[in-house]
From TrEMBL:
Residue intervals of the COMM domain: 121-184
InterPro entries, A to Z: COMM (IPR017920), Commd2 (IPR037354)
Organism, scientific name: Triparma strigata
Taxonomic lineage: Eukaryota, Sar, Stramenopiles, Ochrophyta, Bolidophyceae
One Pfam family named in its UniProt record: COMM_domain
Protein name: COMM domain-containing protein
């Protein structure tokens, strides 16, 4: 996680276990409501733990990000504790945060956008080239076709293409890789992490 997340979690260092549990529960609620939260909940928590409202909101956002990322990676207790260890939370606070995460891990996972979307996630690709050789005429040119089997998280997809389409596919993939290495994309990735 970034230094911004670490700065936003600083107020957690001064909380007791009960306040950390309240804050963590609010994070779960934030994730469960599609990353929206009633401002009155933030005000109420800010009054109860005696921290400015702006800092409470930043803390909820940062801790929610940790919850969502850990959930996507399906962290168990050991790995979740490892994920929060760079923030040097006191043991009672770390125990409270971990307890809320473990209790709500399935709920967090189900409500995390990237795992709840309808898009398929790539897992594997296999291919083969087929050449039709059944024709006896020497004048007919053999034209190869490529068959692809793309395994995804939901179901495999099969398609076939000729040399021209394969060349177009290659060009599009090269453009995507170039775009990924572009400075704007790199900057965006840094901000997202």
């Amino acid at each position: 996680m970034s230094a911004l997340v670490a700065n936003d979690l600083t107020p957690l260092l001064g909380l007791n276990a009960a306040s950390a549990t309240q804050t963590s529960s609010l994070c779960v609620q934030y994730i469960q409501t599609a990353f929206t939260i009633d401002n009155s909940e933030i005000k109420k928590l800010a009054r109860e733990i005696n921290i400015p409202q702006k800092e409470v909101m930043a803390m909820v956002l940062a801790l929610s990000k940790i919850f969502a990322e850990s959930s996507k990676r399906q962290h168990n207790e050991h790995f979740f504790r490892k994920a929060i260890s760079p923030y040097a939370l006191p043991d009672p606070v770390a125990d409270a945060v971990t307890g809320v995460y473990l209790k709500n891990q399935k709920l967090i996972f189900e409500n995390t956008p990237s795992k709840n979307s309808s898009t398929r996630e790539y897992t594997d690709l296999s291919w083969r080239m087929d050449v039709e050789i059944a024709r006896r005429s020497v004048q007919n040119m053999a034209e190869p076709n490529w068959k692809f089997n793309v395994s995804t998280s939901k179901e495999p997809i099969e398609f076939q293409c000729d040399a021209a389409m394969l060349d177009k596919l290659k060009g599009e993939l090269e453009l995507a890789l170039r775009e990924e290495k572009d400075t704007h994309s790199q900057r965006f990735q840094r901000y997202m992490n």
